[in-house]
Amino acid sequence: MATTAQELEATETTKTALPPGPRRLPYIGNLLSLRRDPLGYLQKLQRTYGNMATIYFMKNPAVLLFRPEHVRYVLVEHPRDFSNIGSFQENRDGDDNFGNEGLLTINGEKHRQQRHAVQPAFHKKRVEGYAQIMQQYTRELLKTWQVGDKIDMSRAMQALTLRIVSKCLFSIDLSTQLEPLGDAFDGVIGSSTSMAEDLLNIRIDNPVTGYGKRRAAIRQLDMLIYTLIAQRRDDERDYHDVLSMLMTAQSGEEPDTKLTGKQIHDHILTFLAAGHETTAIALVWTFYLLAQYPQVRLKLQDELHSVLGGREPSLEDLAHLPYLDWVLNESMRLYPPAWMQMRFVAKETELDGVRLPVGTMLILSQWVIHRLPDIWEDAETFKPERWDPAHGQQIPPGAYFPFGGGPRTCIGMPLAQMEARIILASVLQKFTPQPVPGYAPGFQPVITLRPKRHLEVILMPASSGEANAQWEQLVSRHEKAAQNGAERKGCRPALLGLLGL
Q: Model confidence over 327-339: pLDDT tens digits?
């Protein structure tokens, strides 16, 4: 009885120490509410409870932190007091985890050493050298597009960014494997049940379950990555890329200890996944927003025309395209590809008078903090001008963190930013992508913030701002022809005639 009383007392102490929150269901806690509408639920909790709130995954508390100063404290000022692995995760088998030995998940000195080992691949000069690959692959894609085409922009951006990151970081061209690899990453990243299954530790390896589909997708990716590692081990050349750096990296504090095959595999998987997924999603949401705000799109195309005059953007041009930067910044504010981050308390902490015991999960949500109305004027509106230094908007540190913050800031941030700018400028120089009529993206907040439905667009001319009234008729004819079984190329002459081209 003494042990039970102690446990009850400890439980009550934890309950009273943590911030208030909504009522929870037996066993599953607040998981159903979070899973039903994660974005809306987190915003509702912020509006109801203010700076902090506590929810539960089963019996495990999770404290939601809703202020920029909390982001700064956890990610920047005291990062060593928080880890990526919590007590209820660390004893689980790792074979099903997505890159659990990659930079996103490892902690402490191991993280510092392995990040340092691959850092040269992301130095400014090296990243600038990747610009030619980005230009070439984007150019090759755009050559396959014509005005009037119907494009699955979600798929197109995923394939393009996956091809770019694999070439830049691993010196391989995956152009012949993009479709199956895209499907595999969709099976891992895009599983709508993966979050719930992870937290509840549900493992039913069946083709119809989310876990089973994810395991099948991971096996497909494993085959590619271990083949790549084996081929590189047999190749005596030094490619000076991330893979070469991983092959020679030290695994920990002990001298002359190299990374294992599993560690190299997980780093490659992490870089491939994070390196293409976030940029592709950021571009898809940006194309969607530009279609909803045509005045912004026209202003951006005017800037592109003024600076580039119809040619593809070079690295040097990017410094002269400030509005392009503001558009992408604002897109990632409203629709951050990484919509929340988790940390676990590694050292007992007091934050704003609240005691946070070791092992407590913390959740920092970009989705919520990027939309706080007391920080962001007209927070729900797409306004790239807010990023104009002359605008006078004061953005507190920690209020905007699409790439994380502190020593764990995304190592590929400079690469992703340059890539997104080059691709967006290149596409808008030639086309105005317009979503098909009636398109509503919805939200699929899984590991990343994906649109629930792929963004399908009709390619209008880049100068088609004045022709917006015609495009619905264009799309209607295009879809009617498709329904009648006509080939797309057979439809094109009529489409071009409608546009006066």
A: 999 999 999 999 9
